[in-house]
Amino acid sequence: MSYSPLIDQLITALRCLPGVGAKSAQRMAFQLLERDRQGGRLLAEALQQAMADVGHCAQCRNLTEQPLCGICASHSRDPQLLCVVESPADVVAIEQSGSFRGRYFVLQGHLSPLDGLGPDDIGIPQLLERLQESEVEELIIATNPTVEGEATAHYIVEQVRPMGLNVTRIAHGVPLGGELEYVDGSTLTHAFNGRKAL
Amino acid sequence: MSYSPLIDQLITALRCLPGVGAKSAQRMAFQLLERDRQGGRLLAEALQQAMADVGHCAQCRNLTEQPLCGICASHSRDPQLLCVVESPADVVAIEQSGSFRGRYFVLQGHLSPLDGLGPDDIGIPQLLERLQESEVEELIIATNPTVEGEATAHYIVEQVRPMGLNVTRIAHGVPLGGELEYVDGSTLTHAFNGRKAL
Ligand SMILES: [Zn+2]
Ligand SMILES: [Zn+2]
C-alpha cells in the first residue's frame, strides 16, 4: 500500500463516482492534492450542501432544494402541457433542446416488478392527483423507449384514460433501446414535433 | 438553466476533477443525488480531510499526513538505495511493480525554466542535504524520459558528482510485452541507441 490513510480514503471515496475506476480515482486525488486544493475544498462543500439540502419538488418530483423547482415555479411555462419523464437528466436534455414549453412530472424511475418498483414508487398516485387538480390538457409521455419505459407509458395511459385528457407519446426519433439523456437536441425536437395521440 | 443552484454548484465543482467534462459531471451529480447520498457525504468528508491535512513527508517530499511517509518510516527498506522520481504517482507505479526495496525522493515536478521552476522549486537542495547526511550508496534517477525529465536528471548528476556516489538511470526502451509496431519513434530511436551486446 503506497498511500497514506487519508489519501487511501480519498481514492476509495472517489470511486463512488460513476465511471471512476482505481486508476482515475488516484489521478483525481493526486491532481487535487498537488495542484488544486482550493478546487478540492469547494467540491467538498458543494457535495456536503447538495447531499444535505437537495430534495424533490413538491409538484413534479424533480431534484431541487426549493419547495418548488424553477420550472414549476415559473409563470412562463404553459400550464396545459405536462411531460412525464423518468429522470432529472431527461428534464435537462429536453430543456437543452428547447423543444418544450410546458411543465414536467419526474417519475424518478420506471415500473420494474423484478426490482419491486410499482406505481406507488414512481409517483403515479401523485401524477393522477396532479392531473385532476390542474388545467393540464395534454399529457406527453416521454419515458425511455425501453421495455420498462414502454410498460410504464402503457400503464400511465390506462390510468389516465378515464380523465378524457389528450395523451401523447413522443415520436420514436429517439433510438430504441437508447437512453433519453444521451440523445442530441435536434433528435429530441424531432421527437416532440412528431408526437402522436395514443 | 435546468439545475437548481446547489446542483449547478455541485456540477461546476465536479469539473475540477481531471477528465470530467460537463456531461460526466452532470451524470456524477445525479447519480449521487438519486442513488448514493451516503457515498456523496463520505466523499465530501474525505476531500475535506485530505485537502486540510495531507502535506509532504519531511524526508522525501511525498504526500502524507504524517511527518514521515510510510516508506521513509519503514525499517524494512534498504537505506543504501534512493530513487528520485518526479511525482507521487511514480512512487505508486514503482511500488506496484515490486521492483524496488529502497526509499524515494519526490521532486514534485521537474526543472522547467519556462514555467519558472528552478532547482529550489523541485527540492534539489533538500536532496543534496539528504545525500550528505544519509548512508545512501546508489542514487537511481527515475525522472520521466521527456526533455524536461532528462534535463532534470542531467542537472542532478552534475550536482551529486562530487559526492562520489554510484548514480544510475533506469533503462528506457521498448516496453516488455509491447509490440514494436505500436511503439513511438522516439522510444525506438532511444532503444536503438541504447542497444547492448549480447
Ligand atoms: Zn417541479
Ligand atoms: Zn517519505
TrEMBL record, chains A, B:
Domain spans labelled Toprim: 80-175
One GO term of the biological process aspect: DNA repair
GO molecular function: DNA binding; zinc ion binding
Zinc fingers (C4-type) by residue: 57-72
Keywords, ordered alphabetically: DNA damage, DNA recombination, DNA repair, Metal-binding, Zinc, Zinc-finger
PANTHER family, alphabetized: RECOMBINATION PROTEIN RECR
Function: May play a role in DNA repair. It seems to be involved in an RecBC-independent recombinational process of DNA repair. It may act with RecF and RecO.
Protein family: Belongs to the RecR family.
Protein name: Recombination protein RecR
